[in-house]
Amino acid sequence: MCEIKGFVSRVGIGLVLITVLFISAAGCATSGVGVGYSAYARHDYDKALKHWQPLAAAGDREAQFFMGVMCFEGRGVPLDHAAAAAWYRKSAAQGFAPAQNNLGLICYSGDGVTRDVDEARRWYAAAADQNYAPSQHNLAVMLLAGQSGGRDVAGALRLFRAAADQGHAPAQYMLGAMIDAGTGVKPSPHEAAHWYRLAAEQGHAASQHSLGVLYERGRGVNQSDSEAAHWYALAAKQGYAASQNNLGLMYLSGRGVKRDEAAAAKWFARAADQGVAQSQYALGCLYHKGQGVTQDDGAAAMWIERAADQHLSAAQCMMGVMYLKGQGVEVDEPRAASWFARAAEQNNGRAQFRLAQMYEHGKGVSPDAVTAAMWYRLAASQNDPMASESFTRLANAMTHDQTAEADALARRWLEVHSASSSQLAAFGDDQP
Questions:
Q1: Mind listing the pLDDT tens digit of every residue in the chain (432 residues)?
Q2: Helices (H) and strands (E) in the chain, counts
Q3: 372, burial (CB in 10 Å: exposed 0-12, middle 13-18, buried 19+)
Q4: What is the C-alpha radius of gyration for the chain, rounded to an integer number of angstroms?
Q5: How buried is residue 428: exposed, middle or buried, by Cβ count under 10 Å (0-12/13-18/19+)?
Q6: Cβ atoms of residues 261 and 286 within 8 Å
Q7: Buried b (16+ CB within 10 A) or exposed e, 207-242
Q8: Could you give the CA distance from residue 147 to residue 361 in angstroms, rounded to a whole number?
Q9: Is 170 helix (H, G, I), strand (E, B) or coil?
Q10: Which DSSP symbol is given to 79?
Q11: Are 10 and 210 in contact (CB under 8 A)?
Q12: Pick from 139, 146, 213: which is nearest to 176 by CA?
């Protein structure tokens, strides 16, 4: 009953704005700023402050930027986002792109200033016009999300590409994701793989995960489970939950890696702790079966219920079974029926079959032959032979009108829930 699948392709295109807390010492034109930079890199914040503060007060735009960084991070000075914004503003007014970027971020977030998305966009644009990659990325994020003006997919694509061409890993990832999904451009898994790889080789976790997905599915690259596992492992070790889940699946099945149930449980647990429903369900199943962990139905029920609360239908169905049988929880037929119903409403065929049994035998619900027949019919439309046999058996004991009512209810349910044409076809040639 506890079947583990739960592959996670992508959590979604992450519209994450990039702040710049450090720049290269090569960009420091003033010798005093460079000395402060060296001290800051050694975590000698008092010495950095000693060099930067007088220079910033005298109007040095780089020193003003670094004073903003110190105030924003609370290093060498009290944490003060308002003071950080003030220093960034002074530096940004002198055209210093890193300060313009960070001021844009502060305006966007409202840390230390009144939130102003329009002003954030203006500062990002000012830095992007200087070909500053982090700001090109951030402005592209806003254009893609339609913030501060209408959505501009073409503009976002152009800016992501400009930043990606400079080696900016987050932009390379976003460009790859847009090309992968065909957002504003013809889909090309091969080109997407190129951009994912460039970012992945810089340690960008989301790109490592996406490249792993392409290898696992053989899209844009030659299919290779071992390559998929390699990239998932790199991202998983950085805490990337989707990769932790997928790596757990690979260890459980022995694809791309040597089968290792304990390793699977370890990676599922890490992703489950981050709230990944598929991993919570998988970990619960391992506890239920005693695979890779000590058998413990109490722990199984805890993790599976967490996944069920996130509307994962397989977990909801399994919780119904556990409440019905008293596995890790007290027997509670009404609660079992409730979980079966939640999963059945998501068109989970096994849950529809279980719910039909509950209605047929009056377990946790009032007995209702018509409703039972409806759910058997729905489960049967998903090629469940046991459901088909149960529907036929029950229909033979019902009147013609009852059977017709159950059939009509099932058909209406499929239409309302936009079921597949194959499921509707199971009801005969008279379907609309």
A1: 677 666 655 544 445 566 655 554 445 555 789 999 999 999 999 999 999 999 999 999 999 999 999 999 999 999 999 999 999 999 999 999 999 999 999 999 999 999 999 999 999 999 999 999 999 999 999 999 999 888 999 999 999 999 999 999 999 999 999 999 999 999 999 999 999 999 999 999 999 999 999 999 999 999 999 999 999 999 999 999 999 999 999 999 999 999 999 999 999 999 999 999 999 999 999 999 999 999 999 999 999 999 999 999 999 999 999 999 999 999 999 999 999 999 999 999 999 999 999 999 999 999 999 999 999 999 999 999 999 999 999 999 999 999 999 999 999 999 998 766 666 666 654 433
A2: 23, 0
A3: buried
A4: 28
A5: exposed
A6: yes
A7: bbbbbbbbbbeeebbeebbebbbbbbbbbbeeebbb
A8: 55
A9: helix
A10: -
A11: yes
A12: 213
Phi and psi at residue 335, to the nearest 5°: -70, -35
The alpha carbon of 144 is separated from its chain's Cα centroid by a whole number of angstroms, namely: 18
The whole-angstrom separation of Cα 235 and Cα 230 is 9
Question: How many residues can be counted in the chain?
Answer: 432
CA pair distance 341, 359, nearest whole angstrom: 11
Tell me, what amino acid is at 341?
A
Q: pTM for the complete prediction? A: 0.89
Quickly count: other Cβ atoms within 10 Å of residue 49's Cβ: 20
Task: Look up residue 252 and give its two tokens.
Answer: 């459980």
- How far is the C-alpha of 198 from the C-alpha of 196, rounded, in Å? 6
Please state, in angstroms and as integers, the Cα–Cα distance from residue 223 to each residue in 47, 173, 219, 256, following that order: 54, 21, 7, 11
> Look-up: residue for tokens 């996670």?
8
Integer Cα distance of 276 and 312 in angstroms: 10
Helix axes 61-73, 97-109, angle to 10 degrees: 30
Q: Any idea which residue has 């009108």 for tokens?
A: 401
- Torsion angle, alpha carbons of 129, 135, 137, 143, to 10: -70
Give the position of tokens 């951009």.
195
